[in-house]
Every structure is written in C-alpha cells, then in structure tokens.
Amino acid sequence: MTTPMLEIRDLHVRVEEREILKGVNLVLPAGEVHAIMGRNGSGKSTLSYVLAGRDGYEITSGEVLMDGQNILDLDPNERATAGLFLAFQYPIEIPGVSTMTFLKAAINAQLKARGEAVLSTPDFMRAVKDAGASLQINSDMLKRALNVGFSGGEKKRAEILQMALLKPKLCVLDETDSGLDIDALRIVSDGVNALRSPTRSMLVITHYQRLLNYIVPDVVHVFSDGRIVKSGGKELALELEAEGYAGFSEAAA
Amino acid sequence: MALQIPVRIGPAEQSLIDQLNSVGATAEATRFAVIGLPTRKVESYHYTDLKQLLRTVPPLASVATSASPPALRIAGAHQLMIANGAVQESSTAPAGVIVGKTAGSALGPRDDLLVRLNSALATETLSLVLESSVDPVIQIDRRTEGPAGHAADSARIFVADGASATIVETYSGSNEPHLTNHASFVQLGKGATLTHITVDLSSKSTTHFATSEYLLAEGARLRTLTIHAGAGLARSQVFARFAGERAHADFTGLNLVGDGQHGDITIDISHAVPNTTSKEIFKAIARGRSKAVFQGRIVVARDAQKTDAKMMMQGLMLSDEAEILSKPELEIYADDVVCGHGSTCGALDEDHMFYLMSRGVPKAEAETMLVRGFLAELTDPIVDAALKEALEAVLDGWLGG
User: Fold this and answer.
1) Is the Cβ pair A96, B375 closer than 8 Å?
2) Which fold has domain A6-93+169-252?
3) Which of A61, A86, A130, B275 has the most CB atoms in a 10 Å sphere around its CB?
4) What confidence score (pLDDT) does residue A253 get?
C-alpha cells in the first residue's frame, strides 16, 4: 500500500480546558480530494489550524502524518516547506507588506529551505503573472498591501494564487466558499480544480454543500462534535443538504 | 510668585553653569543655578528626567581636527557640514540655494532648557535660503568629532514663496560620550514645499538633543520625519506654528531604542490661524531594556476654526523589558474643528506571524517583514528614491543590529 498524503490518527486537541477534537481519524490518499462537512462549531476550523501548526492548541494525543512524516513537532513554516498549504477562511490583512513582496519572500523561503535555487525577479514576475491571469488578479492588486482592503472575493483569489505558486502537496481549504458570490465562487473553484493532480491531495472544509458542486470530492466526511462520524461518496453531501446535520449528531451520540 | 528655593546642584549642572559663565551667558548661568536640570516635576520632561539621566557634561567641544566617515551617504545629495558647532566652508551650492552663516543660534526665545542652552552656546548658524525648486537632496551633516565634547550647533532654513526642497540632517561623530545640542529653525514661505528629515546616527555613548522649530506661511506644505537610531539618550523636540491659512504639515517620527537606551520625541504643534491641517504619525520600536517616550501636544487657538489635526502614535515592543510611554494631548480653544488622537502599543501580532509562517517564511524573516511593514507608512511618502533607500538601510541596519 502506498503512503497516504495525510493520515490523522486518533487526534485529540484541547483549547484551554475544553476538548475540541475528540479522536479524529482520517486517511487521505495522494491525488484525492476529500471534503469535511460539519456545522459551525463542530471543530472543523480547529482541525485546519492544528494541521497548519497555529499556537494555542494543546494536542493531548494522536498523530498527524503528511506523506509518512509526523508534522506535529514542526513549526508552521517547516510544515509549509514540507508541502502543506492552508487556505484561510479569513485571510489575514498585513499592512505595509505588499502582496508582491510577500509572495516573493514565501516562494524563495520555501525554495531555500528545500535547497533549491531561488527565483530571479523576471522568473518570479512571470510565474505570478501566469498564475494570476486565470484568477483575474491584476498587477494593481499585487502592489497593494497583503489582503488590506481586499474584497472577500479578492482575498480568496489571493489565497488560491498563493497555492498555485507554492505548489503544495497537501492543500487544506478552510471554508473557501464563505463570503463569495456565485461568480467569485466559480473563479476560485476553477483555480482549485486546475491544481488537482495525481500527486496533490486536498482537504476541503465546508459547512455548505454548494462548494462541492464546483469542487467535486472523492470522499465526503461528516464532522460532528470533534470527530468524523460518517464517510461516504459525494452523494453524502447531498444527503446532508437534504436532511441536515441533526441525524448524524444523534448517530454519533 | 513664590520664591524659588535653589535646588541642590549636581556635577553635570555645575559643569553647565561653568560653561555658561565661560561664554559670557552669566544671566542664563545664574538662572540655571537656581532651577537646575528639569526633573519629572517639569511636565514636558516628566518621562525624561534630565537630573537623573544626565550625570556628567563633557567640556565645550573645541575645533574638530579629524572626521569620522559619513554616517549616511545619499546618492546625488549636496552636502553641507557643521563640525563641533562650526559651519564648514562648502563648495558651490546647487542652483537656487544660497548658503551662508550668521552669528549666534537660530532659535527664538522659549522657556525650555535645551533651547536656552542652544541659544547661549551656539556660536554660529548655517543659513540656507532656498529660492526656487531645488532638485538635489540637501544634506546637513552635523558631526561631533574628537574627544568627548559638549557641542551646540544651529541652522536656519528659509524656503522662499513657491519654492520646494528636501533637506536631510544627520547627526554623528566619534565614539565618545559627547553631549550635543542641535537646533534648526525652518521657515516656509507662501506655497513653499519642504521635506525635512532628521536622523540621529550618533554613537550609543552620545547624548543627543535636537530642537526643530517650524513656521508655516499661507499654503505651505511640510513633511517632517524625525528618526532616532543612535544615541544612548536622545530627545528631539519639534515646535511648529501654522501662521498662514491653508497650510498643511505631516509630522512623522520614528523612535528606535535598544537595550540601555532612552529616546524621547516631544512635539508641540500650534494651529494659530483658521483653515490649517496637520497629521502626526509617530512610531516607536523598543527592544531590550529600553524606554521610548512620545509626547504630542496640539494646540488649536480660539480663532483657528476649521483646523483638521489628527495625531497617531504606535508603539511596537520587541521585548518584555521595553517601555513605551505615550502622552498625546489636544488643547482646543476653537469650536469648529476636527481633531483627534490615538495611541496603540503592543507586540507583533501573532495572527500576522502565523499567516506569514504558514506560507513558509521563517520566524526571524517574518518578524523583519512585519517590522518593515510597520515602518512603511513613514518611508513610503518619501519621493526621492536614493534618499528612501538610504533611510531604509538605516532602519534595516538597526533591525539587524
């Protein structure tokens, strides 16, 4: 059996005194797209932050393996360099740092950490221009401070642009559809779909079935009260949409 | 008036009294002997208690006979120099600039110790008249060279009606415990435009005092940037007066303090006539065991209707032992004005750090990016590319130091 891209084993996580994740198990093979659906407050975003390595979460037990490597001891930048990318639900606004400066620093930091040659400025500009075109990102947006004053759609497109440029192995998309109108949703989904590949896996976190019409998953997991309570094919998402999360919570209890 | 009981005089104060007497400023010496150095009881020195902080005063500086390398090189700038208080002979000035010198200090009378000392001790003033739009950046390179010395120097800048210029003043010198007292009097004519930047790059053993006084005529446009990136003890004072309608000024500053340093930027802005605007943006970064002080006072006179003045101070603390003290004040006597002030202080934002690191940027580099981002608001408005680059190098040097 080949090594899965992501394997989560019995992950328990606390924030202060409260247990948020209560034994998450998940296997995401290379090249697949899995969706995690659950209502607000079920712990989905906590899972995404724990994967990316944000401070403030106490991991009481369990393991997270990316491509066979336990990543829980790595700093966020080391996880990124190892191939993890989190598309934020609410991308952070950073005044004074231009989007272009940031992109270049991120790309070159990852190349450097992997022992590869950094991009020359012309090569970098070309890469950004190419990746930005299909996401309708113009040079004016790239000159502005990172995410500052960006509309909801611009922020999400900028996230996908970063994903395209950083070429991660594992993409975690946290509520990427939130705050998007239907046109923006299509642009963002097309951007994500263009990045699907046999060597790249995606974990799409959403509480809304709509996104999965555009980014069609191989497997859907239902998340409730800090764990996965049911997994199935893409039709599970439609079932959830029709019947709500209530039935699944009871099944778990 | 209550009779002032003379204070106990310490060694630093005795040296100052002797120095004032030695230059013939006996009235000033007598007055000073009664009140001494300002303590925390003097409101404008509340956070910079000179009686505590200034323990010794070196002898009055003699003529400089050597020179350390320039502290800041700006490509294409025209250089003028004042060394140990003496205005140096200069080569031909750029078109539109008249360079000269006059006796005494350029500062007007003001009840402030540093102003009084400068007025008594500065023997000559570099005089600059800018008659038209001057292209090259003008750098006034003020040095204190040789053994430890107390040096007072002075410059007077007049930007004629409709003229424009960019002037950078740098302060540096030999690595000795100097005490320097710099003065600039800057006058903007009608519709004149000036960017005036002061950068303290003196050694950490130096005590740096600087006073800049601004007078703005109708329609004048001023941008200032006061940077502390050198002396162990630094205090920069900015006094400005709007004397003509429709004048606008951006007063900005950056107080960088590291372990063992104390930096104070104190501004006092007077909107004296109607329809003038100002924006004050001051930032401080403190690391190690250090103290950064900002005092900002805006006074709007009774007749100064339609004044629009907004003051902001932002402090960034890079260590637990750092202290940032901020005191914004508005004193408004007019009733139809838009004025405001704000002050924030904190460490680097954890969410910002996480976001950058989640993209692969290592921690130290992420910190540098965020600090540069914090400072961009001050350097972005500087138009001259070579000057901007030189200033960014100063900031990067400090951040990396």
Assistant:
1) yes
2) Rossmann fold (3.40.50)
3) A86
4) 39
